[in-house]
Amino acid sequence: MKKRFLSLLLACWMGAMLLISPCLAADSFPDIPDPATAAAAETLRLMGVLDGYSDGTFRPEGTLTRAQFCKLVINAIGAEKELSRYAGVTVFPDVKPGHWAASYINLAAQGKKIIAGYADGSFHPDRTVTLGHAVTILLRLLGYKDEDIGGVWPHGHIAMADSIELTDGVGGSANTALSRGQAAKLFRNLLKAETAAGASFYTLSEETTLTSLDAANGKLVTPIGSYEMEKPQNSTTLVGSKGKVVLKNGKALTFLPTEDTIGTASSGAVLVSANGSTAGFSALTGNRSGYAIYKNGIRVASRELRVGDVAVWSAATNAVLVCDTRVTAYYENCSPGVSNPTSVEFLGTEFDVLPTARDTLARFHPGQVLTFYLSADGRVAGAVQESRGNAVAVLGGSDSDSKTVGTLRLLCGNTEIPLDCSASGMTEAVMSVSSDADGKIWFQRLYGGAGGTLDTDQRTLGGTPLAETVRLYDRDGLIALEDLDRTVIPAGDIAASRLNWAGQVDLILLGTNAASGTYYYGLASVTRDGDGRQSLTVDCGGAQTIGPFFNDYGDVRKDTYVAVRVNRAGTAYTAVRTMDRLGTVSASAWIGDNAVTFGGQTYVVPDSLPCYNRDTRRWMTLEQARDYADRLDLYAYGGEIRLIEAGA
Asked: Which residues lie closer than 8 Å to 531 by C-beta, 6 or more apart?
């Protein structure tokens, strides 16, 4: 079945409102290039949940602490009136009543019972909140109980969140830091979510169009009625969008745009005619000034534009979005006809044609091999009868429903477009893609790029800087740099890479030995079932147990300390390693409470590090371990201390 992507991808890339005059667009956050994020941020701003900074920016890539996320949750559910009851309460020893977020944290923990601390009883309010933690909190808010969610945490919770569309459009992996942009999308999805009991979490009106927001009179106006606003705000960013009014006790909390009808995208595009040229941009933007240019998701100066780049206009973010993806492929079909094609088909997939490109496409006919130029939202902006393609396809993908063998996604700028063509039998995660005059689709392993060691701390590959939006793939699909168990990946574990127009690495394919997944560290337990199959369970302390899984785990013996990597589905080990005993240290080797020196190197040891007492066969906190024994054994993996043993 052929797919049409315009309605889907507009929600990810193009206008979050109708094309409007410059003065009306000025109240949107200028530093959010993705209109879907911009619309989500504006929806939450109107609700009083997530706001911008004093300089007018939103800083979508900025991260949130655990304390800040608690405040967002309490504001999102409108529970501010309950805060005073929890101001003087001490639930966690590291969140005293004087802490700025104490009442929010205490209310979330004790009043709403949606957050919990670490195994040692602490909360660590200033630690960065991860996507896994954030999703877990919101699932509890919706009435989902941890014990009823299958799989290994946090993967089971992420899978549940995916199934109810709580993480729709959010991206990222469970253990990566949650950004402000991701948080905006999470809370946007919460607005339309259902509880575990199947009830609506918020009350939503029927679909309508936002006519105006009148803060002076406290009114949100739509064709189906005028609503009193809970927190009156002025805004025009969402005006003209279709969506639903979010209601509480009859008052409007905010306006929730319908994803596939967020405003109307510009129908025009400009093919850059010379390096560094912005010719045609004035007409494209309606003679607006002060707009930003984003190329493949990165903010750039005009000098970084190249011949053949495709530029489209996003009114909601006052930005020109540029894409440099070109696909050389067999022209299979068109609709409604050759003279005025509104859609064309290549790589087995149907793509919409921008109105400004229809005259160009009318010069060609199905049966030819063309190079198609794509816009940031996956529409055809032009074509030439030459081989100029640079298209790359991903086998598998970043979404939980796209990891079956044969599923392909075309990299388009900084997003991925599902393809209907088959890649059965392929094992590479990333490959170049094209089709020939016989219509046969060709895949070739990605070669070349920068060589050398990947250093995630320095964000370099062999000394070449990584692009801000670098995409990292292993055999399973897209991963985050933070998912790697090591900060340094040797050159031999880098299968391939790609350089962008600026000489930065924008794509990396990892070899088998550097495959991703979540690592856990603990005590191995080997058992055998009635059929004689051996399984491995890993006790990680703090009531966290991984497995049992029956897949191959090598020669690991019972009661040894291991590092295990679990696939992102939480269903199998992808690596099992016996941890190295770094050595034994005495009390004098410790520097303060959380640092220890061994072999001339100082290691930071977090409070949450699992510590095992061989005498009592119980887990304990770091503080308890240091009190119990004068000498402790350190176990390391990947250059960091992962576990401490006391006793025996």
From this structure: none
SS3 of residue 191 by DSSP: helix
> Which long-range CB contacts under 8 A does 454-461 form with residues at least 24 apart?
454/488, 454/489, 454/493, 454/494, 454/508, 455/487, 455/488, 456/481, 456/482, 456/484, 456/487, 456/488, 456/489, 457/487, 457/488, 461/494, 461/497, 461/505, 461/508
- How does strand 292-295 pair with strand 319-323? parallel
How far, CA to CA in Å, does 82 sit from each of 87, 102, 104, 116? 10, 13, 9, 19
Distance CA 399, CA 377 (A): 18
Beta bridge partners of 270: 311
Distance CA 557, CA 84 (A): 54
Query: How many residues are present in the chain?
Result: 648
Counting Cα atoms < 13 Å in the Cβ hemisphere of 518 gives 17
Q: How far apart are CA 43 and CA 183, in angstroms?
A: 12
* CA nearest neighbour of 37 among 262, 288, 228, 324: 262
Tens-place pLDDT, residues 115-173: 988 877 889 898 889 999 999 999 999 999 888 887 778 888 888 999 999 998 898 88
Helix (H) or strand (E) holding 2: none
Give phi and psi for 523, each to the nearest 5.
-100, 125
Residue 506 and residue 471 in contact, taking contact as beta carbons nearer than 8 Å = yes
Residue type, 325: T
Looking at residue 30, its amino acid is: P
pTM across the whole model: 0.51
Distance CA 541, CA 625 (A): 13
pLDDT value at residue 3: 41
**Structure tokens of 464?**
């070449």
The radius of gyration of the chain from alpha carbons, rounded to an integer in Å, stands at 27
- Please name the residues in contact with 199: beta carbons below 8 A apart, sequence gap of 6 or more: none
The span from the CA of 381 to the CA of 336, in Å, is: 17
Residues in the chain where the model's pLDDT stays below 50: 1-27, 260-265, 397-405
Residues 6+ apart with CB under 8 A from 627: none
Q: For residue 187, what is the enclosing H or E element? A: helix 180-191
CA distance 576 to 574: 7
Residues 405, 410, 412, CA angle at the centre, nearest 5°? 155
Tell me, what DSSP letter sits at residue 339?
Answer: T
Which helix or strand (DSSP H or E) is residue 25 part of? Answer: helix 22-25
**Dist CA 280 CA 268 (whole Å):** 10
- Rounded to an integer, what distance in angstroms lies between the CA atom of residue 157 and that of residue 134? 10
Instruction: Report the Cα–Cα distance between both ends of the chain, in Å, rounded.
Output: 64
Residue 103 DSSP one-character state: H
Strands (E), 375-429: 380-384, 392-395, 408-412, 415-419
Q: Are the CB atoms for 481 and 456 separated by under 8 Å? A: yes
Q: Which residue in this structure is represented by tokens 């909360």?
A: 123
**Using CA atoms, how far apart are residues 428 and 422, in angstroms rounded to an integer?**
14
Q: In a 3-state reduction of DSSP, which class is residue 241? A: coil
Number of Cβ within a 10 Å radius of residue 223: 9
